[in-house]
Amino acid sequence: MPANPxxxxxxxAVFAALADPTRRAILTMxxxxxxxxxxxxxxxxxxxxxxxxxxxxxxxxGLIRQERRGRITWCKLDPDGMRHASIWMRGFGQIDPVDxxxxxxxxxxxxxxxWTDQS
Length: 119
Prior knowledge:
mainly alpha, Arc Repressor Mutant, subunit A, three-stranded antiparallel beta sheet, 12% strand
């Protein structure tokens, strides 16, 4: 485990934001370029207010930044936003895959009993 793990609330906010397919689609769109809120809303069949709530959730999780330029609010992907979640998830990649044949041999040796071959 890292020396200074993120507070659970930070990871919770990121994963909660990523749990919604509309928010994941927005993040995918923002991978291409910064976008005005109205441009983000265009492909979705929901209100501008609903899109604004999704954007607020993404911003609160640190996944995007919003910037006001004149009368237009621009959205930009924050590349550091998923860093801690990514580091946390990578920790699970270090677990060796289980060899089920070896596991079965272990169980047969440790728990002799009524084993039936199902091969």
